[in-house]
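Field log, afternoon session.

UNIT: design team B
ACTIVITY: writing a sequence onto a fixed backbone
BACKBONE:
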C-alpha cells in the first residue's frame, strides 16, 4: 500500500473522530463550562488515557509493530500470530493487575495527578469517584492497541483508525441520554468512557477475526520474544510518550491554580490535537511498519526517502496550521465552545492557551514522524535519554512560567519542550546517517514558510475585516469563521502551488513508494 494512501486512511478516520470529539466537547463546555465538575472529569479522563498513550499507543506499538512485522516477513503469518497471542496473554494479566491496584489505591493515586485538588475535599473525592469509573477503560483500549498493531502491520489501517469514533459517540450518547439519571453530568461521562472501552474492544476483535488473524487466549508465558518486547517497551514508555508526560505535568501543576485552569488547558489542547491527530498520528502510524520492512530488507535508500517524504508532508500541513491557530485562536475557541456555561472570560483564557500550544504544533508532529526512525531499528533507549531531558525542561519551565502567566505559561512550556525534543531526535538520526535531508526537502521548506507567512497575513487582515460578525450572534460568527478558514486554505494552497512548495498533481504520489 502506498504510504500516502495509508496516511490519508488513518488521517481521514481520525478527522471524523476529531469532528465528533469537537461535538462532544461543545456539549461538555455548554453543560459544564470550566467548573469543578469539569475539572474532576478531565482528570478522570486523563488518568487512563495517560497510560494508554504512554504504554499502549506509545511504547507498545513502538516495540510490537517492528517485531511483529519482522516475524511476518521472515516467518510468515503463523509465527507472527503465535507471537501476538503470547503478547495478548501477558498484556491481559499485567493490565488486570494494574487496574485492580489503581482501583484500590485511587485515593493515594490521585495525589500523583491532581495534588492541588486536596485543598477542596469535595472536588478531590469527586475526581476519585469518576476516575474509578473510567480507569477500566485502560484494560480494553490497551488490548485494542495490540489488535490495531496487528492490523496495521497487515496494511489494514481503517478499522483501528475508526475505533476512536466509538469513544466519541459513546460520550455524546452518555451526556445526552444518561446525564439526567446520574449525580452529575461528570458521572454520565465517566460511565460513557467505560462503555466505550468495551465497545472498541469488541469491534476490533471481530475485525481481527474476520481478517483471519483472530487471537486465541493462551496461558501467559514470558517467551524470549515476549521478553524482547518488554525490554523494548520499558524505555519506549518514556521515549514515545514524552508529549503525554509533559501534558500530565501540565495537569499536576494546573491543579494548584484556581478552578478552571485544567478545563482551559483541556479545551485548548483538544483544538490543537486535531492537526496532531490527523497529520502526526496518520504519518507515524503508516511510517513505522513501512520503515520496519524497508530496514529489515536492507533497503536503506528507500528508508531515507520515506523519512524525507514523511517530513515534507507533515511540515506542509503543520506549519500553516500552527500559524493559523496562533492568530485566530480567539474566534476558534469562541465559535466552538463560547456558549452556555462557557462565557467570555472562559473563551479568553482558553484562546490564550491555544495560541501557546499551537506554537509547538509542528514539533508535536515532528516527534511522531521522527521516532519511527528509532523504533523501526529497535532502538528505544536513545529516545528515552532525549525524553528525560525534555521532561525536566518542561517541569522547570512550568514552574518558572506559571507564576507570571498562569495556565498560559504551562502551555508555552509544553510547546518549548516539544521543539527541544524534535530537534534532539532529528540530530540523533542525522549523526547516525538515518536522516539525510534531500535536495527536494531543502528546496521546499522555505517555500512552505513563505506560503504560510502570506496566509497568516491574510488571516490577520480577514479577522480585522470580520471583527463585527465574529463578535456577533452565533450563526454570523460561525459563517465568518468558516469563511476565514476557507479563505486561508485557498490562499495557502495557491501560494504553495505557485511557489513550488507543493504540486497538487504530486500529492497522490508524493509518498507512493511501498
Amino acid at each position: 500500500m502506498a504510504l500516502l494512501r495509508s496516511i490519508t486512511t488513518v488521517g481521514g478516520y481520525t478527522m471524523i473522530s476529531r469532528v465528533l470529539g469537537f461535538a462532544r466537547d461543545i456539549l461538555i463546555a455548554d453543560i459544564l463550562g470550566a467548573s469543578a465538575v469539569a475539572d474532576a472529569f478531565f482528570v478522570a479522563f486523563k488518568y487512563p488515557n495517560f497510560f494508554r498513550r504512554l504504554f499502549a499507543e506509545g511504547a507498545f506499538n513502538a516495540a510490537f509493530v517492528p517485531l511483529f512485522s519482522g516475524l511476518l516477513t521472515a516467518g510468515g503469518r503463523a509465527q507472527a500470530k503465535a507471537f501476538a497471542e503470547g503478547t495478548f496473554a501477558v498484556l491481559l494479566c499485567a493490565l488486570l493487575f494494574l487496574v485492580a491496584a489503581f482501583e484500590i489505591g485511587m485515593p493515594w493515586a490521585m495525589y500523583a495527578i491532581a495534588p492541588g485538588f486536596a485543598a477542596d475535599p469535595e472536588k478531590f473525592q469527586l475526581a476519585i469517584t469518576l476516575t474509578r469509573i473510567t480507569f477500566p477503560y485502560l484494560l480494553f483500549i490497551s488490548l485494542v492497541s495490540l489488535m490495531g498493531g496487528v492490523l496495521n502491520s497487515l496494511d489494514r489501517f481503517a478499522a483501528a483508525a475508526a475505533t476512536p469514533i466509538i469513544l466519541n459517540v459513546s460520550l455524546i450518547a452518555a451526556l445526552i441520554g444518561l446525564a439526567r439519571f446520574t449525580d452529575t453530568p461528570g458521572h454520565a461521562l465517566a460511565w460513557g468512557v467505560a462503555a466505550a472501552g468495551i465497545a472498541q474492544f469488541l469491534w476490533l476483535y471481530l475485525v481481527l477475526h474476520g481478517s483471519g488473524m483472530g487471537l486465541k487466549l493462551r496461558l501467559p508465558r514470558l517467551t524470549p520474544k515476549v521478553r524482547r518486547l518488554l525490554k523494548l517497551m520499558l524505555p519506549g514508555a518514556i521515549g514515545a510518550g514524552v508529549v503525554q508526560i509533559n501534558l500530565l505535568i501540565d495537569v499536576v501543576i494546573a491543579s494548584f491554580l484556581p478552578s478552571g485552569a485544567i478545563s482551559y488547558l483541556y479545551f485548548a489542547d483538544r483544538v490543537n490535537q486535531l492537526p496532531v491527530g490527523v497529520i502526526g498520528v496518520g504519518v507515524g502510524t503508516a511510517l513505522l511498519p513501512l520503515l520496519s520492512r524497508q530496514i529489515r530488507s536492507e533497503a536503506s535508500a528507500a528508508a531515507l526517502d520515506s523519512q524525507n517524504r514523511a517530513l515534507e508532508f507533515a511540515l506542509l500541513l503543520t506549519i500553516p496550521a500552527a500559524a493559523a491557530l496562533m492568530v485566530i485562536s480567539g474566534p476558534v475557541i469562541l465559535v466552538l465552545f463560547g456558549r452556555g456555561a462557557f462565557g467570555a472570560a472562559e473563551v479568553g483564557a482558553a484562546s490564550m492557551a491555544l495560541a501557546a500550544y499551537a506554537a509547538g504544533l509542528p514539533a508535536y508532529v515532528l516527534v511522531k514522524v521522527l521516532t519511527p526512525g528509532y523504533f523501526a531499528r529497535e532502538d528505544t533507549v536513545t529516545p528515552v535519554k532525549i525524553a528525560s531531558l525534555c521532561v525536566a525542561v518542561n517541569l522547570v519551565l512550568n514552574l518558572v512560567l506559571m507564576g507570571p502567566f498562569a495556565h498560559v505559561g504551562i502551555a508555552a512550556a509544553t510547546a518549548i519542550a516539544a521543539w527541544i525534543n524534535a530537534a534532539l531526535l532529528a540530530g540523533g538520526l542525522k549523526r547516525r546517517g538515518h536522516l539525510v535531508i534531500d535536495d527536494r526537502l531543502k528546496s521546499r521548506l522555505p517555500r512552505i514558510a513563505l506560503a504560510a507567512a502570506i496566509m497568516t497575513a491574510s488571516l490577520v487582515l480577514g479577522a480585522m475585516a470580520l471583527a463585527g460578525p465574529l463578535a456577533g450572534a452565533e450563526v454570523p460568527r460561525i459563517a465568518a469563521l468558516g469563511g476565514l478558514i476557507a479563505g486561508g486554505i485557498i490562499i495557502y494552497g495557491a501560494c504553495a502551488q505557485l511557489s513550488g512548495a507543493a504540486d497538487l498533481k504530486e500529492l497522490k504520489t508524493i509518498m507512493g513508494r511501498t
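LOG NOTE: The chain has two domains: 3-437, 446-505.
NEXT ACTIVITY: expression trials, pending approval
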